[in-house]
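thought: fold this chain, then report.
action: predict
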Amino acid sequence: MNSHSNDGREVMPDQVPKRRFYIAEYSDTLRPFGDWKWLNLSEIRQPRGMPMTTKTLTPYSKIPISSGLPILNGKPRIAVGLKSKPPFDAYKSGSYKFISERAKRFLEEIDAEAFEFLEADTETAGGKRIESYWLAAVKRIVVEFDEENSEFVRIPPGGPDGDLPNPNFRVIYNFQAPDLSPSIHAFFLSRFSVKGMIWDDVLVDAWIANGLTGLDFTPLQEPSDEEFAQSERWPGQYLVYWHRKRGLLK
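observation:
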């Protein structure tokens, strides 16, 4: 079946652009140190571990994969923008990740089924109350992708799931998933050890176009020149891999 371009022209299947995917990571390099803090974490966190709201069983593990929001014993209270004005739209401390109200509205508009949110009482410097930030998490898990046409580094077999298939991946350089529904824009890949959020180009392009801040995006396919110009923000293995691909490192 043929598709059509925005101006109504017919586009043959081999001319349809491939989707692009990115690791979406909360940036530690953009914001000043100490720009946000918890106000009540010790009061509301679970005494042991970090249980999460969503469990997904896959063919590749004996135990379900946890995703979604951390389960807390109360409403979060945080302070943001303690040094930067205005505050960033995304903050992270370990597994706790917060986003602004406008970022929440944006994510819900594009892919509401991927995310879970919990409102946090929010203030800024001097104890001034401001519009709520939200504890945010991706709950959707994707298990299968096009391994034949993707590039990755496997983790050696072993561990408690030794009698199960063990195609887990330490690094994925070129991620292809042509069968993934176009309505899916954000997810975790169940067998990806990094456990970074994966966003598609629709979500990434819209985040940038709307001027939202606090996230970095590492391409999971050959980067464009514009993306490569931001490569200092990528994890080290991606930086080295794509510099070598371009002949900039031996």
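thought: worth noting. The first helix runs from residue 41 to 44.
final: tokens above.
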